[in-house]
Design the sequence.
């Protein structure tokens, strides 16, 4: 007896690809009853207007349509929705959701989520455990407690292993974690991986544990074949299906999103230009309002955040979403004067000026130039200012910036320094408030 397991991960609302995958899986399921379909999270991404307009509920409807059996959550489900919206996300799901390392402040699992799921297929019992990435400060700011995934998975394995024939871990934790997990827990039969957007063409065998991963954006569909003799798993193999080889289907998800986001924010004439290689009024306004919103001394952003400019008389939520599609939150970082000077110097090197940046919440293309607000410097004299006050090496300052800068790639100073994340507001929420309150030049 063979059981086939299809798996997707990190779709990130690439819904055209997902529609192809859905049709393919439904075609297979219509002719075979030995199929399980599992999703590893980050299906939701609020960079897509249809997802934004429905706060992810459209993605759940699409997973229902694809007849997914079990999913786990990714960071895009967990930390880009506020507490109430995340608790509502799976209320209409026709599938099971598992995550063993996320709780509210009262120690309760999120609504409609279980620590593990047991599914029976042809008399074979599959124990499926989900776990998600430990984005502790983000979850804490939203009212959630995310725990150590390794110990949470180990506890759940111990709980269900005697009751099942196969243990599967749905890991939104990254490939390095998955390898460590396999090394320490050979009693796991299969790990399906996500989060770091990696893929294994024929799976990877570590300590007898098969690890599968299918990249990102629906570029691949994963397929695992488990072969049984009675209830005993004898063989396991993996392959990837390139979705470029699956017949295209048309979709109208962007059009649906545009209709749902058609509400006008203002009737006033507005000009919000996009400039990649110089500051613009748009970046000035965004940086100023970011500084005000976080009650900081200055602000630092990059020009590539403005993905589309806008000129006209009827700016809608859709137009603003196209301008700022990123699921990026504000953050206020405490720096000494010396550290702030280092950050200013690094920013003026514009190290990522022409780079196409993917991930970290950034949903544009070219990174562009760094833009400073209420921060000045005289390079020839090595003098630095907040407003008109010269920066003192020994004083502390509050810098308003982006959560994407705190992951270590852009500014090492931001990793360890004290910081406060402002959630669930995105950059476009701050801009929307400014426009609604006429806090801009027409």
Sequence:
């Amino acid at each position: 007896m063979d059981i086939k397991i299809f798996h997707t991960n990190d779709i990130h609302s690439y819904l055209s690809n997902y529609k192809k995958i859905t049709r393919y899986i439904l075609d297979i399921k219509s002719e075979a009853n030995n199929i399980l379909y599992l999703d590893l999270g980050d299906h939701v991404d609020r960079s897509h207007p249809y997802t934004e307009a429905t706060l992810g509920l459209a993605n759940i409807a699409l997973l229902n349509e694809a007849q997914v059996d079990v999913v786990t959550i990714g960071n895009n489900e967990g930390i880009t929705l506020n507490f109430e919206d995340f608790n509502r996300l799976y209320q209409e799901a026709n599938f099971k959701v598992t995550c063993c390392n996320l709780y509210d402040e009262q120690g309760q699992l999120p609504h409609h989520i279980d620590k593990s799921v047991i599914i029976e297929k042809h008399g074979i019992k599959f124990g499926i455990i989900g776990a998600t990435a430990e984005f502790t400060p983000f979850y804490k700011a939203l009212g959630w407690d995310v725990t150590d995934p390794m110990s949470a998975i180990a506890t759940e394995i111990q709980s269900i292993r005697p009751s099942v024939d196969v243990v599967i871990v749905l890991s939104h934790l990254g490939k390095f974690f998955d390898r460590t997990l396999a090394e320490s827990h050979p009693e796991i039969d299969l790990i399906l991986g996500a989060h770091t957007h990696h893929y294994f063409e024929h799976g990877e065998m570590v300590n007898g544990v098969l690890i599968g991963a299918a990249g990102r954006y629906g570029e691949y569909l994963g397929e695992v074949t488990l072969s049984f003799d009675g209830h005993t798993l004898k063989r396991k193999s993996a392959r990837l299906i390139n979705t470029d080889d699956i017949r295209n289907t048309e979709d109208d998800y962007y059009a649906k999103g545009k209709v749902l986001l058609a509400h006008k924010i203002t009737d006033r004439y507005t000009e919000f230009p996009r400039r990649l290689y110089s500051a613009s009024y748009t970046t000035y306004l965004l940086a100023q309002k970011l500084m005000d919103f976080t009650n900081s001394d200055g602000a630092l952003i990059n020009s590539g955040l403005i993905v589309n400019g806008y000129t006209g008389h009827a700016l809608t939520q859709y137009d603003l979403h196209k301008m700022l599609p990123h699921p990026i939150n504000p953050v206020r970082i405490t720096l000494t004067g010396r550290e702030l000077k280092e950050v200013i110097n690094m920013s003026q090197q514009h190290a990522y000026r022409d780079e196409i940046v993917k991930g970290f919440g950034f949903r544009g293309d070219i990174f562009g130039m760094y833009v400073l607000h209420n921060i000045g410097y005289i390079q020839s004299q090595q003098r630095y200012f907040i407003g008109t006050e010269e920066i003192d090496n020994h004083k502390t300052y509050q810098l308003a910036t982006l959560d994407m800068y705190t992951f270590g790639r852009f500014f090492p100073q931001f990793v360890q320094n004290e910081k406060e994340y402002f959630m669930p507001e995105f950059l476009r929420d701050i801009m929307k408030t400014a426009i609604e309150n006429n806090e801009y030049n027409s």
In short: Residues 15-31 form the longest helix (17 residues).
